[in-house]
Design brief:
Layout (H helix, E strand, L loop, with lengths): L5 E3 L7 E5 L8 H4 L3 E3 L6 E4 L10 E5 L13 E3 L9 E4 L7 E5 L4 H5 L3 E4 L8 E4 L5 E6 L19 E4 L6 E8 L5 E7 L5 E3 L1 H5 L3 E3 L9 E4 L2 E3 L6 E5 L11 E3 L3
Antiparallel strand pairs: 1-2, 2-20, 3-5, 4-5, 6-8, 7-8, 9-11, 10-11, 12-14, 13-14, 15-18, 16-19, 17-19
């Protein structure tokens, strides 16, 4: 069955159901006001109280101003909710603001000298690192043993928000490979400010797909294509429903006997 935001019965005639796709709900007060309709608005948009055509299923969304937070910090991401702000960052949102700022934590000189990385207070350090507690938004996580991948393995001057280590970088960081250490450990350098790791190509967007760095698509009946571009050294893929693999199906009817 193709992807539906909701399935309605008794509206298409005997034996058929109606598949609601909020993205095609484009002729309503929401879109006339500059918004767009989705079941969920996601991390780069916020919900507003303006009706879509299907008010029971679809929400009216408006995009966050992605330049809003750059004045606060040049590597900050503008997000709709704190739940989208991940490791190594803290979230600040004014009472009257629709979106908030996901700001990268910064390591002080002591943390840098210890080979540590900055983490939001309240979150656990990654395995192999111990926490140096702080009353501030952020704390330092220091390695339990000397890391085979030094904090500045790139040999370049990096900001106090950036670091290198073994393994993958957290969300919101641009990951650049520095090869392997003598022991065979993969070494990556992580640079704050990567609000969008992947960029969808037209084939992915036209097929209602989304980009992912995962090897497989998370939802049933979705297929993986090479229609997303990566903004760093991590491969990106497009996941879209098999019904949309070759063409976009804006209007379709589903038989309950299919």
């Amino acid at each position: 069955m193709c992807k539906c935001d909701a399935i309605l019965s008794n509206v298409c005639g005997e034996g058929c159901s109606c598949c609601v796709d909020c993205s095609t709900d484009t002729n309503n007060m929401c879109t006339f006001s500059g918004g767009f309709c989705r079941k969920n608005c996601g991390k780069f948009a916020y919900a507003v109280d303006i009706p879509c055509g299907n008010t029971d299923t679809c929400s009216c969304c408006k995009r966050c101003d992605e330049n809003q937070c750059l004045a606060v910090h040049p590597a900050a991401c503008t997000l709709s909710d704190e739940s989208f702000c991940k490791n190594g960052h803290y979230f600040v949102k004014g009472e009257k603001e629709s979106c908030g700022c996901c700001i990268p934590c910064a390591a002080d000189d002591t943390c840098i000298a210890a080979g540590g990385y900055p983490e939001r207070s309240g979150l656990d350090c990654r395995k192999g690192y111990s926490s140096v507690d702080s009353d501030d938004y952020c704390k330092c996580c220091v390695p339990d043993t000397e890391s085979p991948c030094g904090r500045n393995a790139s040999g370049l001057v990096i900001a106090n928000t950036d670091y290198c280590w073994e393994g993958d970088c957290f969300t919101h960081y641009k990951q650049m490979s520095q090869g392997t250490t003598a022991s065979g450990t993969q070494c990556n350098c992580c640079y704050a400010g990567s609000c969008r790791r992947c960029t969808p190509q037209s084939g992915c967007a036209d097929g209602n797909g989304c980009c992912t760095t995962k090897q497989g698509c998370p939802c049933k009946d979705y297929v993986r294509t090479n229609e997303c571009s990566s903004n760093d050294d991590v491969d990106c893929y497009c996941c879209k429903h098999k019904c949309h693999q070759f063409a976009r199906n804006d209007v379709f009817r589903l038989s309950k006997f299919y």
